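User: Working on a comparison across species. This one is Galactose-1-phosphate uridylyltransferase from Ruania alkalisoli. Can you predict its structure so I can line it up against the others?
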Amino acid sequence: MTGLPDLSTTRVRRTPTTLADGRDFFYYDDSEPYVSGEQTRRLDDPRPLPDRFAPIEGPDGVTQPVTGPQMRYDVLTGEWVPMAAHRMNRTFLPGPDTNPLAPAKPGAEYTDGEIPATDYDVVVFENRFPSLMRVPGEPDETTHLDGNDLYPVRPAVGRCEVICFSPDAGASLSSVTPTRMRTIVEAWADRTAALHAIDGVQQVYCFENRGAEIGVTLHHPHGQIYAYPFLTPKTQTMLHQAVAHRQRTGRNLLKDVLEGELASGRRIVGESEHWVAYVPAAARWPVEVHVAPRRDVPDLPATTDAERTDFAGLYLNLLRRLDQFFVDADGTPMPLPYISGWHQAPVVHGRDDLRLHLQLFSIRRAPGKLKYLAGSESGMGAWISDTTPEKIADRLKEIA
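Assistant: Here's the predicted structure for Galactose-1-phosphate uridylyltransferase from Ruania alkalisoli:
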């Protein structure tokens, strides 16, 4: 891939290569002898994988071209719904000997894992089972299901990537060092900038699903990066609110929210030179925290070196406190299942109205109890919280 951002001024070395089936792969190194370039991680992938875009022979013996996932437009909500039926066969809770995110086994000819090297710091690669994918030669055109213009259909172009935070399958993001966390931030920013440059991409979402309760199918510490060919419903809603706020007040909504939380101080759970962590005033989830930069920043590529380093320390502290939020009957902390993701301004629309911030939330409402979405929430999107933002903040302050 061309047009990648320059990392020459950072403490991270990016080394690109290609996996056996043609997917892009990137090492992000912060340790020697790799960060200096004295040595290079293994770049070849010995697996006998066919090219992912090669024609496929069907059950009838007829060869057909590869087709990508499609998405259909819901005229009742204004949302695009990707349909990736091919993901039904993706890896699900593999055993310790078949972990596809672990480093390659030393001395083995090859293993069916995604990382060619026997060790790594951080890696990013295209998902083997993507929900969004552009197939070469397949036109990105809108057609209509059943010939009815009520039902627009498009290829679900875009890109899905995996980011591995550690080579240690037993680790978690909260257990990495500040240096490694800083490398992860660099990888997020680097990939966001590269994906923003892809034709048709409208926004990029870097996120982590953690814990079996969340639905994680691979326990190895990792996250994902989605490049969407549309604005997601959450982003559209925030943009609508932000535009209305600017028209009414002349100010940035997310900036006003941050200043309001700072003025109150009631729900602030962490501060550093460049970042503020707070429980939002209308938190929906049993545990929810937002982390926002003090400076007006649209996305991760726009953050400075100092802001990225500062975030790494604040975020690790927050993650470790969150893993003590709930304790079992004997007082042992219970690792928190959560979803954490970066809300970034879209590539084009809303650059001046939306502001970078991270949202982390958990569905655990008590030890041994999860928040299941009831009929009002699932059916009508009318939320009912099981707690109050102030109680969440008080617990996190108590842990601090």
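For your comparison, note: The mean pLDDT is 92.

User: Helpful, thanks.
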